[in-house]
Amino acid sequence: MNEIAPSALLPRNDGILEDIALHYDYSEIANDTVLEFAKSYFKDRIAKDQMFDFLYSTQFRYALLTKEQNKNDLVFDYGEIDKNIKDLHISLATKYEHLRVLSRGLAMERLANALVDIYPNSLSIKEAFGLIDKGSLSEHIFDINSALNGGVNFHTKAQKVLKYEVGKTRVIASYKGFIKYLARDKNHILDFVTPENKNANFGELDYEFLLLLDGKNTKSDIVKKLIEKCQKQGITINENKDGKIISYKTVAEQQAYLNKAVDIFAKGLEDYFMFEEF
Largest alpha-carbon pair distance within the chain? Predict the structure, then answer.
């Protein structure tokens, strides 16, 4: 997914670029005079889109390149969009508490409050349909997204925060091969991103953490194995405290530090949706 300038939204001989974000309804954001001007001076949809992009200072669009033959299948009607998103899930990118105030008294209020309440977990579209009294669900999602300047995320499966529990959850198994590669990679050509496409900024020892959170190792197992690895490979465990680098060299110091570090690291992985049930 790339961010492209509005002027790039033009058909090509071998394909077409089109929005993958919810498309706004002109009638909701423009008065009759502006709408009449758009219809009179801009005969095709792309030209109208660009006019409104300039008018509302739209700096970027999120686009997908598809074949020219799919052009007639593009959907702009909210009712039809509702049908296309029925199997998806939505969540907020951050717990926007102020969304409660922004949505107060508006048609989107119940849906907005539900998204804040369930954060960081997701809401299924089926559940979301039960929270609107009138209009299209896509319309309300668009209104929330606009109020937050792009704070609504779509998912192909439910997003649920899971804690690390031996025998119940583990780091997503399909990541294992890539994690092993990154643990060996000294050139740092590639980086680790979470299921939500966020850069996790993991360090060398963090990859060892990830591999040990396999649903079999207890917290004490993980601490013991990390200490053994540090001793074997001569890795020094450092911590930045108030701008000072403190090195933990004895086993007792390392154990005390890692006991806290495992809990903190596991909590961070929960927020990244990095655990799965098995």
Answer: 78
Please report, for the chain, the start and end positions of each structural domain, with discontinuous segments joined by +.
2-74, 80-155, 169-277
Sequence letter at residue 65? L
Q: From residue 60, how far is each of 29, 102, 143 by CA, in Å?
A: 18, 24, 18
Report the alpha-carbon angle 209-175-258, nearest 5: 5
- At 6-21, the pLDDT tens digits run 333 334 445 555 555 5
Per-residue pLDDT tens for 144-186?
A: 988 888 889 999 989 999 999 999 999 999 999 999 999 888 7
Q: Among candidates 154, 151, 153, 171, which has minimal Cα distance to 162? A: 171
- Structure tokens belonging to residue 196: 């939500």
The answer to whether 51 and 42 are in contact (CB under 8 A) is: yes
CA distance 30 to 25: 9
Angstrom distances, CA of residue 267 to CA of 16, 111, 143, 270 = 43, 28, 32, 5
Read off the tokens for 24.
């706004």
* Residues 151 and 94: beta-carbon distance below 8 Å: yes
Q: Yes or no: say if 133 and 107 are a contact pair by the CB < 8 Å rule.
A: yes
Q: Evaluate if pTM is beyond 0.70.
A: no
Q: How far apart are CA 153 and CA 94, in angstroms?
A: 10
Taken in order 55, 60, 63, 68, is the CA torsion positive or negative?
A: positive
Dihedral sign for Cα 255, 260, 261, 265, please: positive
Token pair of 157 as six digits: 């499966």
Q: Please state the rounded mean pLDDT for residues 117-140.
A: 92
